[in-house]
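Bit of a strange request maybe. I'm writing a small parser for structure token strings and I need a real example to test against, not something I typed by hand. Could someone generate the tokens for this chain?
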Amino acid sequence: MKSYQFREYGGPLEPAERPTPEPTGTELLVRVHACGLCHSDLHLWQGYFEMGGGRKLDVRAVRELPFTLGHEIVGEVAAAGPDADGVAVGQRGVVFPWIGCGGCGFCDADREHLCHRPRALGTHLDGGFADHVIVPHPRYLFDFGDVPPALAGTYACSGLTAYSALRKAERWLEDQLVIIGAGGVGFAGIQLAKALFDAELIVVEVDDAKLDAARRAGAAHVVDAREDDAPRQLKKLTNGGCAAVVDFAGSSASTALGFRTVAKSGGLVVVGLLGGSLSVPLPLLVLKDLAVQGSDLGSLKEMAELMELVRAGCVDPIPYATRPMDEAEASLRDLEAGRVVGRVVLTV
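Reply from user aminoacidic:
Good idea to test on real output. This should exercise your parser:
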């Protein structure tokens, strides 16, 4: 099999040839058709997340090098282990990559995406920047109906992460929803919010192309966060504040703006991982009865709910562009430079 791996953090993604693995037990060997490129791939490639104040969260210890990135995987079953029931060779599917240890409290509670000993594909175990990948069990393969395969793979992370975050924000939702950040996950949030809620969407961004894309996707209002009066614009549009705000950027500036935008007794859900820190005036947190919640990925159950919506045709597509797998490194650098609207999907 062929894959694109890095041998040192931040180093080149180089082609590598090795024997194609044979599935055992309940495993599936999936022939990769396409794999989406996620912003977290960039952090994993660099080996850290920005924590603000010059601090970095080192994530290099959880994988062995050389390593194959890629967790938005779509493909077909090329072979199955002897104990893999209910699946056929040639069956297509989106791979749920957020696999846990199978024996902890999180895994037992159907929250294996939060497992302390994860075996996630493309983050802890070799992923989909390759022509084949091993999937531990058929339950991690989801039918994607008539959706184009290149788009279908994006639902394994950008779609699922957005879906889970919106479901968390739903407890505070009234007649408006503020979405901060319209990158890959944020744009999925826009499309899913239209499918899930009857609410006016207000989208905040710092990039002209993404602001235009959000407007074309149906946002009632777009706000350029680079403008000095952006907080004032949001206050005016929301009549003093919005009960539900979702920050899909996750930077110091975006989360601070989100905190200023939340209405009394409302909630801010932080999803993005651009990095930084948040300084919160504690009296305001109490006096305004505010909630700030993080949201990481999504569960297997939420993946099933999401894919049911997708198969039913309820979710408009995010913008995406396909590139050959050998452009993985160049695509990461484009993502790093902010030159990607929606998703880049690598095809085999």
